[in-house]
Specification:
Distance between the termini: 39 Å
Low-confidence stretches: 181-202
Structural class: mainly beta
Number of strands: 17
Strand order of the largest sheet: 9-10-11-12-16-17
Helix content: under 10%
Order of helices and strands: EEEEEEEEEEEEEEEEE
Radius of gyration: 18 Å
Shape: globular
Length: 202
């Protein structure tokens, strides 16, 4: 009876996962339209993303938390603390190790699934509206409200052991670079801290 906010399909095929505003998650067989089971959360689901290989569904709830549900075992395997605003974007890394979230407060968080800790956290002046990681995990692509371009962020874990660092206690401020020139080469930039341009990481 509630509005559907997400529909996705597992990699195995024939299994469709949907999420609704009433906090319910339905797992169905398709074709055949047979309901396998329903999972109920205690908060409305505003948006979601599915890792079709691992069977993990990340949901952004109205209580500003992000939860990760295993659709096979019907359990919530991770619950991440409330964001400073409504969650506007969700994305898994290619290996399901990281979950990336964007929020209306302009922040992007990198959450480590095995440990349940946050490994990176930064704030942009414009809220992210979508996030996607490259297939090899080396780059994060983001789009932001009111910004015409796509922004690429390098993965800091490729040259630094982020898991040995203490979890961040506040977001670092990152500026979105301006687009300059007409060529493709001139239109692709890497974001940088407001106080230091030229490098950025996930």
């Amino acid at each position: 009876s509630a509005a559907v906010t997400f529909v996705g399909q597992l990699a195995a095929g024939g299994v469709v996962v949907s999420a609704c505003l009433d906090g319910s998650i339905a797992v169905c067989e398709w074709p055949g339209r047979k309901l396998r089971h329903t999972i109920h959360l205690d908060s409305a689901i505003a948006r979601a993303t599915l890792d079709p290989d691992a069977g993990l569904l990340a949901v952004a709830c109205d209580d500003l938390t992000v939860r990760v549900v295993d659709v096979h075992t019907r359990t919530t395997v991770r619950r991440f603390a409330a964001h400073g605003g409504r969650v506007t974007a969700l994305a898994f890394s290619h290996d399901s190790r990281w979950l990336l979230t964007g929020s209306l407060d302009g922040t992007i968080r990198v959450l480590d699934m095995p440990s349940g800790r946050m490994v990176d956290w930064w704030r942009c002046l414009a809220p992210p509206v979508t996030l996607a990681m490259s297939s090899d995990g080396s780059l994060l692509c983001s789009a932001h409200a009111g910004e015409p371009g796509l922004y690429l962020w390098t993965n800091r874990s490729q040259y630094d052991d982020v898991m040995l660092r203490a979890p961040p206690t506040e977001p670092s401020l990152m500026t979105l670079p301006t687009l300059a020139g007409d060529s493709v080469a001139d239109s692709v930039h890497t974001g940088a801290p407001a106080e230091k341009r030229g490098q950025k990481r996930v």
